[in-house]
Amino acid sequence: MNSDDSVRILSQDALDAATPTFSESPPPPSYSEVADKPSGRTSEHHLPKQESAESSGVPQMKVYAIRWYILILFSCLACHQCVVWNTWGPIASSVQAAYGWSDGTVAMMANWGTIMFVLCTVPLSLMLEIKGLRPTCLLVSAFVMVGSMLRCCRRLIADPKVFLASSHICAILNGISGVTIMASPPVISSLWFPQNERTTATSINQAGNMLGNGLSMLIGPALVKVNDSSRNGTTSFLHQYLTFGIQRTNISFNRDIEDIKDDIDVYMYIDFGVALFLFVCFCVYYPSKPPLPPTPTSTIVRTDFRNGVKQLLTNKDVLLVCFSYSLSEGIMGSWMGVMVLNLRDLNITDQEVGYIGLASVVGQCLMAMVVGYLMDMIKKRIKLTLIVLLALSGALYAVLTLMCLGYLPSTFYFLAIAIVLATSLNYACCPLYFELCVEIAYPVSETLVAGFLTMMYNLVGIIFLFIFFIPNIGSVWINYVLVGSVVVSIPSVVMVKETYNRSSVDDLVNTMSSQ
Fold first, then answer.
1. What is the pLDDT of residue 168?
2. How buried is residue 57: exposed, middle or buried, by Cβ count under 10 Å (0-12/13-18/19+)?
3. What gap in Å lies between CA 442 and CA 297, rounded to an integer?
4. Rounded-to-integer distance, Cα 80 and Cα 145, Å
5. Residues forming beta bridges with residue 42, ordered by sequence position
């Protein structure tokens, strides 16, 4: 099928509305008729020539330069929300030395993010759909700001219990904001960006959130220091995350406790200052949508929430995409936190694991943006690209497994290259999953689709981490699960019927307006 034919593909219901049944001189279809029912089976359609854009009822469209400000500001919020979420992991030894927190307490600060996401997906998705982007972003940026402010209380109230309580409240509020942070990228790209930039915009937003994870690994240890400790005394947080029922080695430190607390206070002030600045920026200017839409589908009202949920749960292709996304990305995201368990028997120190983790985060951000940009260039090849990326990452995970099992050399550099490349290729699939699912599910709202995907992603991650609580489970199984999560995901993608319902409506209306 050539490029001219591809724009003629549209769902059957939309074609029925757009194709007149008159036997003589049928009037041209209007934009409202074409946009009315954009779901169903696909078919070939030959459009009648339009005298003008006005004769088709095509809305006036415009792309605004301010869209990049909208994207960058939200990406900054996504980045900082992740920094706040991962505050305590990289400085776990310091906060335990200063405040006597248990491993379970440190782990719970991160757990709140997943818990609140599952609990708040529906209400925040509804708010984003009903109230729009600006009110929702104001609310969640206020949550991050207020939570960060509460952690600055030690100068006013020196009681460690008050600081502990304020840290829990901050983690809860910040966790609630995570719903909007993860569900909004495809919404922003749909409302503000033209068709040939949507995947790029989604990938930049998701890369911003991942970048926050990497920054927290740099900022926390740089600002908060305990002392030079032995390897046993610097157990990584993500190892603690899975072993908080086990007595860990005592932390020896030669710094005064008050000095460590002062360092933590400085970190809290910086977090609050950034959160306050971002909140002010959202208050000053952050419209829900542009005055004129960038694409025809930006103006079309989406399916209501209840019917949207029903359509998602009954759409086989949506469920296949969701299964593949949640399995491959959910396992990988959780594995990033426990890869120290894979590598600790290979003479790789915790510090070296930290370097690998940071390099992986940077690689994931860059790869996601590059792949997103390429997808906007070549168009409608998401399924094939997903299969290729998953196959490559799966092969690299298999190489990593052979290293961990002793069948291949396992030097630091070989391990680092395999892990960085595998996770980067794997994470690059994220924006593609979102965009493909949005296209298939259209006219279900982008908010609902993204919320559904990320909720299932979190559930898979929770299940993966709970496996570690099985007595004497060991760590060898991690390698097989990691490879299997990608291998099983590939057939799911293969079985997906690749349809671009949203893009087909945009292509059709743009064709009508140009004739």
1. 93
2. middle
3. 10
4. 10
5. 11
